[in-house]
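Database export, one record per block. Field names are fixed; values are copied verbatim from the stored entry.
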Amino acid sequence: MGFKCGIVGLPNVGKSTLFNALTQTAAAQAANYPFCTIEPNVGDVAVPDPRLDVLAKIAGSGQIIPTRLTFVDIAGLVRGASKGEGLGNQFLANIREVDAIAHVVRCFEDGDITHVEGKIDPIADIETIETELMLADLDSLEKRIANLEKKAKTGDKEARELVDLINRALVLLREGKPARLVQRTPEEEKAFRGLGLLSSKPVLYVCNVDEGSADKGNDFSARVFGRAAEEGAVAVVVSAKIESEIAVLPEADQKDYLEAVGLHEPGLNRVIRAGYDLLHLVTYFTVGPKEARAWTITVGTRAPAAAGVIHTDFEKGFIRAETIAYDDYVSGKGEAGAREAGKFRLEGKDYTVQDGDVLHFRFAN
């Protein structure tokens, strides 16, 4: 289990180039004209985690299976998309299906690549996309509220609670603020997600910079980072051009190339870490002679639910989780050494799984 991240942005900001680099495919066209991506392209990539290699080596695992991250390349939105301009309705529907939005923002000058608005202004670009998402949400909620209010007046408790939630969202949207800022209780979260609001999605701003700015960014990306800080979003700097060049190199040559351009790792790693941070995700491991495998869960997940990520039967029949922290597994050079050091623990149903835990689940058939 990873997460599904929709890559959005105005036309010609580098979305498809980034997608091709991230998935190491050429499935998405990367052409210099709007709407070159007509259908959303979907690509799964392995989540790089050096801990998995360490664990596999210690355990002598025959296979290494990382967790996966899904990227959806969604065609470029334009002003008026919420009213069907361009191919707006189709694109907006695609966004509803993702867990988070990776908003690619153009942070480079290039006279050979046209900009749909005729100027390079990353904040204006962000506001164009955000406005279209908010307008679509506003339209959706205003169409639903009247019928729900009628049901609420009959004494329907669920309808009354939903009307209250929608009204809170409408207040923000009419003020030009995204629905993700709606104040809500944990008990209301499920109903809120059920509204399917586009502007409620967590946002990761991907600043697509020129090659010379790939390590530290530039003035354009600094403005995006400032915007992200103001709204509690996350931002990361990537050069889609560099990433596309890395993607076609043999793995053995990638490190030398990165060092030559002043980078320590591919942009994919930074995007994934930023995405994990945004969605509050952590990784646990299962390790044995057959395979070493990574699994993704949300922060705060208890042991039975974590077991259910592997198989629903594990959650239903959960008895206990045999647990070793990653550092303890490594320092003990495996399970036997961790046991001898007193670092092997038996955890029950109330245990909250921690990032890096090496787990073995016991369950009743």
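Remark 1: Residues 107 and 167 are 36 Å apart (CA to CA).
Remark 2: Confidence is low (pLDDT under 50) at residues 25-38.
End of record.
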